[in-house]
Amino acid sequence: MRPLLSPAHYTSKAWFDRELETIFNRLWLLAGVTPMLQKHLDYRTLTLAGKAIVLQNHHGVIRAFSNICRHRMARIQSGEFGNRGLVCPYHHWCYNQDGQLVHTHKDPKVFNFAEGETEDIRLAQYPVKVIGSLIFVNLSAEPLPLEEQFDAQTVALLETYTGQMDSAFIYTRYEGDFNWKTGMENIKDALHVPCLHKSTFPKHFRVDIASNAAIHGKDAVYQSLNASLPQGTTMGGIAMQDAAELDWQRLVAPLETKGRYQTFHLFPNVNLMIVDGTSFAIQTYNPLAADKTEMHMMVALTRPVADFPHKPVVLWEHLLSDMTVLQEDIECLEALQRNLVANHNDFIHGAYETGILDFHAAYLAQTGAADPAVMA
Amino acid sequence: MKKLLIFGEGPSLPRLIHEIERSALYDIVGIVVSHATAPARNNIPLYTLETLPAFDRQEVSAFIVGDEQHLNQQRLAAYMEVKRMGYAITAICSAGASIGDGLKLRENVFIDHGARVLAYANIGANTWIMQGAEIDADAKIGSSCWIGAQSIISAGATLGKNCTLGPGVVIGPGVVLPAWSTIHTQTTLTASPPTTIFLDARFRAPVYFFQK
Fold first, then answer.
1. Cys-Cys crosslink for A178: which of A95, A282, A333, B98, Cβ 3.0 to 4.6 Å?
2. What pLDDT, on a 0 to 100 scale, did the predictor assign at position A211?
3. Angle A236-A135-B200 (CA atoms, 0-180°, nearest 5)?
4. Which residues of B touch A (CB under 8 A)?
5. Rounded to 10 degrees, what is the CA torsion of B27, B32, B38, B41?
6. Tell me, what's the ipTM?
7. The model's pTM
8. Which residues of chain A have pLDDT under 50?
């Protein structure tokens, strides 16, 4: 099938800027999970669509603010995770739970603000929505309703499943020299698993690609049936082959997805996996530049039902196993990215890649098909 | 000489036998392995749990051999199993190690050749301190840790339980390393991490574990 996207969509700054404007500064983005922010004053910092963001728990309510002090634009929270109030370390400007400046210096003459002058000094605040354990942030001044991005069934399942996430988790970041879209396309590409990962992917994750009815009956030219925004998000469930239950699985409460490898590919950039109804693995492909992506990866289990002192071992080895596979992906995607720059051929898609083309159709529906470089 | 029964095998076993023989404190009466493929090793009888004779537990102490794999948990599980069997579990300290007066050597602690442990350090049970490592004054190391060869735990530093340090790791003065932390080879840590941390060459950024 002929492609919908060209190499420029993956390499040009003009397309990257268009994506930031029409997708990442407009849609709801996964910014964390509630176990990261369990306690009063817990925070997490990250960069989303080029903006420095801090998620902050104030008495159980999670809010998102700009992490840039209004005084001298220093970072307010400097760690990736931590527990402290919104106090800029540079000159101790303090902001309250609404992001409003509430303290500058014990001697008012130092700044000499007129009465009422500081009332309008506040951090930019961004809307937050929590679904189950997932924290979404919207960077737009006029955020679209969440239900325009995800359909009701997806929201209900995310609520049910991730609401059962344990509070313990393991997390890391991974910066790679590839475009975020190739990361998402890779996870939608079931065929690469038995090829690229033939020696590393567990046998019980193997899938029969040709048996997927969705790939049949497609024409040589891709025709998107529905490129609406919710169609950009897909769900899938692959039956896991019979295998002995792992020891630790008896120590946690299984979800109804037990026996399945359940996936949610949340448009634009999240891969959420629920493995055998007992563990969550979440990957977010956070774009930093056309050729640079920061992956956020976390693994958590479902809630424990018995004493589980060796949980860190299970989470660490789960992440290691994921990383072994991902390392192969990333090396492949980084080489692919270099080739996209050096080679102007287009992709050639097969019938099994309909899911990738659905993703491209949703992408173009958001960004517009016209080449921003030509438009400029 | 006191009698010693060793449980387990693996890459650490030869060096352990070597250090025990050099110390001349113990007579090794047997090695308990999962599958005995020969009747003896280094002229020491090999047993399985099924063929293990009923040694007098008042006369024979036990020591459990293991490694740092799975965040030290296999070694810990084996240690707990032998403890349940009712053996008195001893510590092994190389004759070539230098340890401060009065240092308490808890069960299944191993201090390898060339290690130096200053007085007032505190070493938890089942913690192994490998060749040439240095534990400075007032350092505290939790149970079931693995301190890699040539590592340095500086004065006043604290390691929680189940920590693993690769060879050549330096933990700076006063640094607190939360339980389960794992630091890969030749790394210097001068500040306490905010939570359990895994520094591993397979990852491009630190891995954090949170349990809230």
1. A333
2. 57
3. 80
4. 70-71, 73, 162, 179-180, 182, 194-196, 198, 202-212
5. -30
6. 0.91
7. 0.91
8. 204, 206-207, 215-219, 376
